Amino acid sequence: MVPRHHELHRGQPVNIVLKPDQRSGKLTPGLVQDILTRGDHPHGVKVRLSNGQIGRVQSLRLSPSSAPLSNFGPASSSQPLQRNLPKQQRANGTLSETQEAATDSWSNPTRSTSLMDYAKPNKSC
Questions:
Q1: Phi, psi (degrees; rounded to nearest 5) at 46
Q2: What is the pTM (predicted TM-score) of this model?
Q3: Are 55 and 8 within 8 A, CB to CB?
Q4: CA distances from 101 to 15, 61, 86, 105, 115 (A)
Q5: What are the pLDDT digits (tens) for 88-117?
Q6: Which residues contact 74 (CB under 8 A, 6 or more apart)?
Q7: What tens digit of pLDDT does each residue of 47-67 get?
Q8: Which residues contact 125 (CB under 8 A, 6 or more apart)?
Q9: DSSP 72
């Protein structure tokens, strides 16, 4: 979920997606100079960075020196990306066996997932 309009302010460190990078999802770090969108937007609030670049905010950064996190590809650790998990799982860190197998596929490519991993058992009468 992208940050909301009320969470942004001038001088705040953020990660944005520039227009040419929308397909790849490449994040560009910077400091907010101007907020260009009047309210919330599903793809992110549009901002101008202090270096003049314009893009949509994808995430907030803790400090100006922290590097952007990629939204795509395997995470640097074995943990799944938090933004791809339902709220309950983000809160308590629990994953079902099937979800663990799916998130572990980055580190263990030999394990394949079949449709049977997602099928519900039939109810017997």
A1: -80, 130
A2: 0.52
A3: no
A4: 30, 30, 16, 6, 13
A5: 444 445 555 445 545 444 444 556 667 777
A6: 106, 107
A7: 999 999 999 999 999 876 655
A8: none
A9: S
The amino acid at residue 49 is L
Contact 18, 27 (CB under 8 A): no
Q: Are 15 and 69 in contact (CB under 8 A)?
A: yes
The whole-angstrom separation of Cα 91 and Cα 29 is 27
Residues in the chain: 125
Q: In the chain, where do the E strands start and end?
A: 13-18, 28-35, 46-49, 54-60
Question: What is the Cα–Cα distance from 118 to 94, expressed in whole angstroms?
Answer: 17
Q: How far is the C-alpha of 57 from the C-alpha of 75, rounded, in Å?
A: 20
